[in-house]
Amino acid sequence: MSVESKKRILGGGALSTLGTLLTTVTLFDIYEDVAVQGDPLFLTVAENSLPLLLNLGLVAAGLILVRNDDLRTEFVTRSTKWSVLGAVSIFGITGWVYYFQVAQGRIKPHIMFSHVVSMGAVAGLAIGLYDGQRREREEQLATERDKILALFENSSDCIAEIEFVGDRPLIRDVNPAFCEVFGYDAEAIRGACIDEVIVPGGDEEMAGAISDRAHRGEQFEVEGVTRLTADGDARVFRLQTIPLDAASWNADGYAVYTDITAEHRYEERMTALHEATRELMTIGSTEGIATATVEAAEEILSLDFTGIHLYDADEEALYPAAHTEQIDDLIGEPPTLRPGEAIAWEVFESGTPRYVGDLNAEAAAYNEDSPLASELLVPLNGFGVLLVGARTPYAFDESDFSLAKILAANVEAAMERAEREERLQRQNERLETFTSIVSHDLRNPLSVANGYLELAREGDDEALDRVEEALDRMDELIGSLLELAREGESVDEVRPVDLASVARSAWSNTATADATLRIDAGGEIEADSDRLQQLFENLFTNAVEHVGSDVTVRVRSTEYGFAVEDDGPGIPEEEREDVLAHGYTTESDGTGFGLAIANEIAGGHGWRMAIESGRSGGAKFVFETET
Questions:
Q1: What's this model's pTM, rounded to 2 decimal places?
Q2: Residues forming a β-bridge with 317
Q3: Could you tell me if residue 33 is left (phi over 0), alpha (psi between -120 and 50 degrees) or otherwise beta?
Q4: In this structure, are strands 253-259 and 524-527 parallel, antiparallel, or unpaired?
C-alpha cells in the first residue's frame, strides 16, 4: 500500500470516527429524552434531526474520502484537518463556558447559546475570508490558465501536456503545432507514453534521464535532442520542460519542443563546407577548383543543378567550366554566355548576387523555355559565376542563398590562391633561369677573360683583344638578364598605340648596321607601348644576329594583330617550339633569351606568338589575339 493511500485512509477514517461519535451522543440524547424523561418523540426527533444529519454527513464524507481514489491525498488531509480542528475548537470553547457555569452553580442556556452563535459568526467570517481569497485565487488561476491554454493552442512550438503515472510520462494533450510537425492525431496519441512514441532507438537512456528530472519538478532546457515523427523522419529539437502546480492543474508539466532541424542542418552543412574549402585550397588550377566546387555543392548542399562559368578575357565570354550530371541530363551542355545575353552576365559585371525565384517571369533569362524555374547566381570576383538552379519556382530559402554565397567566397579564395601559386611558380622558374645564367653562362666568359688577362701580363698584346671580347659577351648576357627581369613585370595600362611608330622607335634603339626595316602596318593596336617596343627590339636583334647585318625586316598588320618577318633562312619547323624556351640558341655567342622574352611579353598582352615561314623563306613571327 502506498503512502498516499495510507494518508487517505487515515484522514477519512478520522472524519468518519468523529461523525460516528457525535451520532452516538445524539442518539443517546433521543433515548434519554423519550425513555427516561417521557418527552414526546416528535419533539425529541425534531430537536436532534439537524445535528443527527450533520453527524451522519461526517460519517459519509469520511467514507467517500477513503474510497475515492480520484481525490488527491493533499485534499483529503486538508479536509480532515479542518473538520477535526473545527470540532475541537467549538468543543473547547463550549466546554470552557460550561465549566465555569457549573463552578458558579448556575447553568445559563442563553449564555451558552450566545457563545455558540458567536463561534458560528467567527467561523463564518473565517470561512468567508477564506472563500473570498479562494475565489480571487481561482480567478487569477483561471486567467493564468486561459493565457497558458491560448499559448498552448497558438504556439508555433510543439507542446505536449504531461502527467506522470508512476515513472511513465503520459501524454494528456498536444497542441496543433505538435500534430503538424510530428504527424500524429491528438486523439490517437493521448494517454500514450511520450518516450515510447517519439524517442528514437538508442536514445532511451537519455530520454529516461530527462523524464526523471521533469518528474522531480525541475525546469530545464536540453539542446539538440532527436525525435521521430509519425513517418519515421528524425528531426532535431530544443526541449524545455515547464513544471505545473499539481494543485491547480490536472497535469505535471509541459514538454516544449522547438524545431531546430533547419538550424542544425545549416550548421552541419557549414562544417562540411569548411572541410571542402580546405580541399579546394589544395587544388592548383581554376578548372580543377570549379569541378571540385560543383561536386561539393551536390554532395554537401544537395544542390543537384549546379554549374560554374569562368570568364575568358580573350573571348570576352563566360564559358561552362564544370557542372553536375543532372544538368547534362536536363539541358545538355550549358551554353557559353556573352555580354548582355543572360542574367549570369549581369551578375558577373555587377558583382552582386541574385536570387531569381521565377525564371519564366524574368525578361533577361537566357532561355525563356528553360526547364529550370528558379536560380541562384553568385559572382566569383572576376573569375566567373556560380549558378544553382531548381525545377520549381521559389525553390530556395534564405539559408540556401547564404550557403551559396559562402561557397562562392571560398571558391574565390581558392582561385586567388591558385593564381598566386602560379605566379610564384613562374617567378621560381625565372629565378632558376637567373641562377643558371649566373652560375654557368657568365662564369664561362669570366674564366676566359681571367685566362687571357694572365697572358696579357706576360706581354701577349692580342690577349687583351680576347679579354675585351669576353667582357662584351658578359655585357650582352647582363643585358639579357635585365630584360628577363623585366619580363616578370606585369603589363602596364593598355591603350591604343601606333604600331608603325613603336616599331621605328625600337629599330632606332637596335644595333642594326646595314639592315633594312620595311613597315606595311597602319593603324593602332591595344598595347603597353614600352613593352611592345621591347618586343620589337628583341625580334630585330634576333634577325641581325642570325641572318646578318644586311637583313631586311618587315613589320605588317594582320587581321587580328601583326607580324615581323625577315629574309633569312628561316627556322626549321622541328626547332620552332624550342627557340621560345629560355637559353635556347643555335649560335655559339647567342644568349638564347630574345625570342623567349618576346613570347612572354606577348602572353602578358593576351596574344599568341606563332612562328611560320615568310614569303621569302625567312622567319615570320605572328602575334594575334585568340579568336
A1: 0.50
A2: 312
A3: alpha
A4: unpaired
Q: 515 and 585, same structural domain?
A: yes
Write out 493-560 in H/E/C secondary structure.
Answer: CCEEEEHHHHHHHHHHCCCCCCCEEEEECCCEEEECHHHHHHHHHHHHHHHHHHHCCCCEEEEEECCC
- Residue 476, Cα to own-chain centre: how many angstroms? 60
Q: Examine the domain organization and report whether 509 and 564 are in the same domain.
A: yes
Q: Is there a single domain that holds both residue 95 and residue 226?
A: no
73-126 tens-digit pLDDT: 677 777 777 777 777 777 777 777 677 767 767 776 656 566 566 665 666 566
Long-range contacts of 311-318 (CB under 8 A, 24+ apart): 311/348, 311/382, 311/383, 311/384, 313/606, 314/606, 314/625, 314/626, 315/626, 318/344, 318/345, 318/348, 318/384, 318/385
CA 359 from centre of chain: 26
pLDDT tens per residue, range 579-590: 776 544 545 444
Task: For residue range 236-286, list pLDDT tens digits in order.
Answer: 999 999 998 755 677 889 999 999 988 888 888 888 888 888 888 888 888
Same domain for 340 and 273: yes
- Tell whether 160 and 98 lie within a shared domain: no
Looking at the structure, do residues 287 and 348 belong to the same domain, yes or no?
yes
Q: Are strands 516-520 and 552-557 parallel, antiparallel or unpaired?
A: parallel
Q: Are 208 and 224 in contact (CB under 8 A)?
A: no
End-to-end CA distance of the chain: 97
* Residue 605 reports pLDDT greater than 90: no
Do 507 and 609 share a domain, yes or no? yes
